[in-house]
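Re: export button greyed out
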Amino acid sequence: MKTLEELAQIRDRMKNKVALREGSGEIRVVVGMATCGIAAGARPVLNAFVEQVADQNLGDRVTVTQTGCIGMCRFEPIVEVFEGDKERVTYVKVKPEMVPEIIKEHLIGGKPVTKYTIGAVE
Amino acid sequence: MKELSLNILDIAQNSIRAEATRIEILIDETETTLRLTIRDNGYGMSEDFVKTVTDPFSTTRTTRKVGMGIPLLKLAAEQTGGTFSIRSVERSVDPEHCGTETSALFYKNHLDFTPLGDVVSSIVLLIRASEKTDFVFRHTMPDRTVALDTRELRQVLGEEVPLDEYEVLAWIRDMLKEQYAAEA
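Workaround output, generated via the alternate export path:
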């Protein structure tokens, strides 16, 4: 059973960690979650990024956020990756099955998975 | 939308944009009907604007961007023989009682009824999208009620640990899933 005592334990465990993490996150993963994105299947994609980034302890380097309509509705679900001064990488028609590869090759390995990017699809 | 829970995720984001500090997501089910109500205390909409959000094709106005989220929910309800309503009080008119209430009634036995789907995912992602907002979620079914009030969780978490910490979100997800799975 999930109890409030258990939540209190999470609080005690997290207290110090949260302060440490502030200001970090050199890579930003942004998932389009407007009506067009949601209808095209963005929710499981966002879920996959959130869960796998946490499971692989990438939270210190990678921040996963959501945004509104990116303006290219026919390519939704769209995921944009921002990293420092590098050019933004735009993944289009993203499916949850693609997420492990994007995390492994791009977020960890530093090489964008070009076959899923807008350049490859357009 | 393939699931009603996706409409919930979509519509509640309007409430976040309207700077709501509290959003209530209420689902009331009987054997044959489902009523979805999303109520917020955000800055509201003018009467004219409410008309344009329910029917984006009734206006030739091109200067203001009107989304498809509300019309999609309205359609989803009406295609089951149900009803849809939206009421709003603008902040400039009444700052004490401003906000928007969207309500849709569905007939579950109708062929075109869209199943609720993964509502837990939608609730968790909404909390994650707007950590500062308080969410009240209550899903009443004939044999059980699933409920969540983030104000209660905040009391336990205090100020140091935010609701959008992954471990906290995972706890919320599992807590809701447990309530859905519990024996009636």
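The helical segments of chain A are 4-21, 35-40, 42-55, 99-108, 118-121. The button fix ships in the next patch.
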